[in-house]
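User: Show me a protein chain along with its predicted structure.
Assistant: Here is one chain, sequence first, then structure tokens.
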Amino acid sequence: MGLSLTLFVADWKHLGALPVGDRIRALDEEYRKGEALCDDGTRPPADAAAWCAEYDFRSTTGAFGPHARAGDAWDDMRPLVDASVREAMDAFLTGLIWDEDPAADPALSGGGGFFPPPADRRHPSVLVVCPPEALPGKVRAWTGVESRLDELREAFAAECAGWAGRPDTFEDFIALLREWGGVTTEAARRGWGLVGLP
């Protein structure tokens, strides 16, 4: 059975006031209280906590696999993409679903110690850590590349179409990228960060 991904838009100031060892538990407790989605795709906690909201990916089943496959697809196709698109996509996807150097993934260190590091690599404590200060740059990168997504079609066809372990279709790949663009933009608007739990 694969990993799931529960992504939160969260107030780093609130989380930072909690002991490091309690931060994941606080998010997990809020997840269990969740209710209906808001228009922006976030799910506020049932008791209307003002410090976090769950983001519900509509193009996936809640599994982490589609995100990992999309990151792998980007890694495969990026050498075939125009440099300006490649640079913007790299800036956008790094630390979310792709890292040029997987050993540099911020989730491996718990976001530089903001969350507890995993006991071992096979059992991560967090899958995604993107602090608020990183989000304005990601939004700028997304804004610059969103209108050019169709330019990825040929590279996707050459490197990913029909391959096991890659998104099923180009449309699936783009739909997931658009969702990451939306949640990243919403988190930046709030001045919050993103954290994904398994």
